Amino acid sequence: MKWREFSSYDELSAHAARIFIEAIRENPKLVLGLPTGRTPVGMYERVVNECSCRDIVTFNLDEYAGISCDHPGSYCAYMQQHLFSHIDVDASRTHIPNGIAPDLDAECVRYEQAIANAGGLGLTFLGLGQNGHIGFNEPGTPFSSRTRVVELTHSTRLANAGLFEGGRVPERAITIGIATILESKRIVLLASGAAKQDAIARLRGGEVSEEFPASALHGHRDVTVLTA
Ligand code: GLP
Fold first, then answer.
1. Active site residue 70
2. What pLDDT shows up at residue 125?
3. Cβ atoms of residues 127 and 40 within 8 Å
4. Of 125, 144, 145, 153, which is the most exposed, with the fewest CB atoms less than 10 Å away?
5. pLDDT the model gives residue 182
6. Active-site residue flag, 86
7. How far is CA 227 from CA 16, 57, 106, 190, 204, in A?
């Protein structure tokens, strides 16, 4: 695991954007795993106007269950707002789990298969939950997990309450699994801010435990952690 420490969120975002842009220049058909949340916003802002993204393929890591793209708290709305509406990517090449699919379990199987059909993830960016979650893989998730429906913890729902009226965050979500993430050829994790410092220290400590999902990344050959 490689570590890069930045003195500000802006520097971290600029570096992450550079990785994003250079990887696409190297392989215009790159398959990207993409995160949501506050942390990657600065990276997305800097990617806009900088890359020709016409041929990339994207898979988002997760989506809330029970809300549609019209809901401002959905990750589908987030991706339109922060990235997809600003770049030339072909909409048919962008993928986000469908949180309102009539059969959510079938949707998970379909999503996992779509990633496999695309040849697996090439470069995956991850955020970090305060409790160490990656995607929506909460503490206790087996490292062998695949795309599935999960129950969100109280602390995760609290941390993400901002865009939900009355703080009513959905109780469930679809997330790609830890095994799916670990199959990505390259992984870049972004973590910034005071609320993440405990999780960053725990990751740096090297403990490998399913109680701390991000620690699964210690078993991967090409992980870079960017912190600020
Ligand atoms: C959510 C997302 C994660 C993300 C995490 C951190 O729970 N499902 O993929 O990494 O939040 O978000 P933030 O960057 O807002 O702290």
1. no
2. 99
3. yes
4. 144
5. 98
6. no
7. 10, 26, 36, 6, 11
